[in-house]
Amino acid sequence: MIHAHMTAWFLALVLFFVALGLHKSGKEKGAKIVQMVLRLFYVLILLTGFWLLFSINIDLMYVLKAAVGLWVIAMLEMILIRTKKNEKASVLWIQFIVAVLLVLYLGFSLPL
C-alpha cells in the first residue's frame, strides 16, 4: 500500500504542474479535465493514506503527518483555484513548499 500511496502522490504532483501550465497557457478545457483527474488522485491519496494510518499503531506523529498531508492537498487545490481566477497565490506557494518539505520529512523519517 505504501507504493500505491507514493505513486498517487507523485502522479498528483505531475498532474498539478500540468494543470497549472495549462491554466497559464489559456487552455481552460484541458486544464479543467486535468484538474478533475487530479481530484480523483486526491481521493486515492486519502484512501491509501488512511489505510496506512489505520493499519499501524496510531501514534501522534503519524496523525501529524496525515494532517500535514491534508494541508498539502488543500494548498494544491487553492493554488489552482487562485491561478484560474488570476489572483495572487504567493502566500499559498510558500505554505505549499513548507508543507511538502514537512510531509516528506515526516513520511521518510517515521518507521513503517
From TrEMBL:
Signal peptide: none annotated. The chain crosses the membrane at residues 6-24, 36-54, 60-80, 92-110. Its main location: membrane. It is a multi-pass membrane protein. The keyword Cell membrane applies. Keywords: Cell membrane, Membrane, Transmembrane, Transmembrane helix. It holds the Pfam family DUF1516. It is found in: Cell membrane. The keyword rRNA processing does not apply. InterPro entries: UPF0344. One of its GO terms (cellular component) is plasma membrane. Belongs to the UPF0344 family. This is UPF0344 protein SAMD00020551_3935. The lineage of its organism: Bacteria, Bacillati, Bacillota, Bacilli, Bacillales.
